[in-house]
TrEMBL record:
Name listed for the protein in its UniProt record: Putative drug resistance protein
Top-level lineage group: Bacteria
Amino acid sequence: MVAGLPVAQAGVAASVATTSRQIGQSLGVAVIGSLIASHPAALASAKAFQTPARLGWLTITGMRVAALVVARISKAPKVIRPPS
């Protein structure tokens, strides 16, 4: 993302990318945490915690696989740099 922009905009692009990544991580933790906490039995014992935790891990794995598929099939634009 940053490589395709003029040098003057590289700092802004890097900060937008970092902010987006941090927001995504925060939302991911919140969603998976609420998914696990939505099973009241998970709070009863360690054994009961395994089922919602497994569901959380499967959700994360599915999202990662989907992201890898999208990254694999998408084509990055060619970066054209003016001669310096």
